[in-house]
Amino acid sequence: DDDIFSSAFCENSEKLINVHLFALAAKYYSLSNLGVCTPLEDVLEALKGDSEGATGIKPDEFMNNKKSHEVQVMSELVDSIANYCGIKQVVDVGSGKGYLSSFLSMQYNLKVYGIDSSSSNTNGAHERNRKLKKHWRAYQSRGKENLKSQSLEMANDRPVEHELNCKTINEELLNNASSLQNQGQVIIQDLVPSCGFTEMATLETNTADLGTGTQSHETKLSEEVLAVLNVLPVDAVEDFSSSHFNCGELCEEEKVQRKMTSLKTKARKSSESNLYLPLTSCITAETELSDIITDLEDCMMVGLHTCGDLAANTLRIFTAKPEIKAVCSVGCCYHLLSEQFENQEECHDQVWGFPMCQYLKDECWCCGRNARMSACLALERVAVGQMLPTESLFYRAVLQVIIEEIYGVTKSDRHVGKTFSKSSSFTDYVRRSLKKLELDDSKLPDSCIMDYYEKYKHRMNELEAFNMLKVVLAPCIEVLILLDRLCYLKEQKNIAWSGLVKLFDPVKSPRCYAVIALKNQPC
């Protein structure tokens, strides 16, 4: 196959001479064709336990379509891994504004720490928490209504017992109180929807208060037992309403209802206090999570579109720390990866983003920035008609010629960024860009700028064709980076399983592959 595909290039000039063969070779070496990915359905099936999963919350109600798709799919997988490993704590690195973190906490009751290096992102996450409280109330109300509806359906399917009365209700409460008395101190955990933080509530029963059968003692018992409800979710408590019980008089039942309503309101306010905890810190390969998270316990690390070296460092921390039992990382921004063999200078102390595995290190493999930039392109989007921004790419290419020929600059630490969308013309684009690059634009008249534009505009079709070839090649370069990370995990001795899983629809979310690994569990 290699011999066949090599004929796409001229043997002497090494120029591309067969575009069709080039495209076939790129497809052949793409991740979808190599057969190294594990289907998401197979992973979920293997992790499946007794739980049926959470339902009811739709992230598209407070996220855009792309983010909603990503969060919903990834959170289900993370919850399955957490259940399989028997852990409740999740560390979300590069958490940004906390979309994934808050959903994991709110939907799956996981204890989530979101870590991001940007304080503005962390502040944004706090602000989103405030707004999510409003949604949280709506979800709770919806869950309560669903529970009532289900209860009514169940009641219609079975004979109605007409002789239930207020005495029966109080007897049930007394029986519950007696069972609590036998335990002495009851710890209620797991049932609490702590929105990211496991809370514990204790109920101490006093045997002196449980000895009589008088009305006052019964009322006090009811109050003590109902105090338990203060830590329960709103929809975990079923109303004692007239639709369920055929009581001639309201008597104590009405009081019980009112107390339950009040306690559920308190429970709602308590559960809304924190959805998850956003933290500001820069994560490197040497980061000690215990210095950032004081109550770090057995946990898993996740990352949704972690930029550049952060994806590689996430895997390194995972393999080095025994308390981290699993990892699920979706990387992005390959152009920001640091490469060990990209420059000639030796720097033995630095930890590089690429390569990670020993095989590519031994080969001194290097991609280069241009290749890594190409790996960020979205072939699937182009294939469905979402064409490349040819004009903005043309502007940037001509700008590069200007700064090299006029200013003698071939490399800069500064970036032009998203200047095209803010520019009214090519001249405006050039002047805005020069200011960003801290270059004096006063010595460059408008006529000179337009001369460059006119000189190269007839080559715009060439540029478009060249970028289309880069798009075709993009999956092959991404394969190299992802397989490097997977091979690094395969080299570790404490890993029980590792794999690449396609999580997302690549049209909605081009960086759609997750690197997943689980550590060996102690016997």
What does this structure look like?
The chain is an alpha/beta fold and 523 residues long. Among the domains are: 19-140 and 273-384 and 473-519, Rossmann fold (3-Layer(aba) Sandwich); 390-457. Helices cover 48% and strands 11% of the residues. The protein contains 19 helices and nine strands. The strands form two sheets. The protein has a seven-stranded mixed β-sheet, with helices on both faces. It has a two-stranded antiparallel ribbon with strand order 3-4. α12 links the parallel β6 (299-307) and β7. The radius of gyration is 30 Å and the shape is globular. The chain starts with a helix and ends with a strand. Mean pLDDT is 77; it is low at 158-249 and 266-274.
Task: List the SSEs and their pairings.
Blueprint: H1 2-6, H2 19-28, H3 31-34, H4 40-47, H5 65-85, E1 89-93, H6 99-108, E2 111-116, H7 119-157, H8 166-183, E3 185-188, E4 201-204, H9 215-227, H10 251-271, E5 277-280, H11 289-292, E6 299-307, H12 309-320, E7 324-332, H13 358-362, H14 369-375, H15 379-383, H16 390-405, H17 426-436, H18 446-456, H19 460-490, E8 495-502, E9 513-519
Parallel strand pairs: 1-2, 1-6, 2-5, 6-7
Antiparallel strand pairs: 3-4, 7-9, 8-9
Helix pairs in contact: 2-19, 4-5, 5-6, 8-9, 9-10, 14-19, 16-18
InterPro entries: Methyltranfer_dom (IPR025714), METTL25 (IPR052220), SAM-dependent_MTases_sf (IPR029063)
Protein name: MET25 protein
Pfam family, one: Methyltransf_32
**CATH superfamily grouping of the domain at 19-140 and 273-384 and 473-519:** Vaccinia Virus protein VP39
Q: What fraction of residues sit in β-strands?
A: 5-15%
Structure class: alpha/beta
* Through-space gap between termini: 46 Å
How would you characterize the largest beta sheet? 7 strands, mixed
Order of helices and strands: HHHHHEHEHHEEHHEHEHEHHHHHHHEE
Rg over C-alpha atoms, rounded to the nearest angstrom = 30 Å
Low-confidence runs (pLDDT<50, min 5 residues)? Answer: 158-249, 266-274
- Any idea of the CATH class of the domain at 19-140 and 273-384 and 473-519? Alpha Beta
**Total DSSP helices:** 19
Mean pLDDT: 77
Approximate shape: globular
Beta strands, count:
9
Under CATH, the topology of the domain at 19-140 and 273-384 and 473-519 can be stated as: Rossmann fold
Helix content: 40-55%
Q: Any guess at the CATH architecture of the domain at 19-140 and 273-384 and 473-519?
A: 3-Layer(aba) Sandwich
Which strand order does the major sheet show?
A: 5-2-1-6-7-9-8
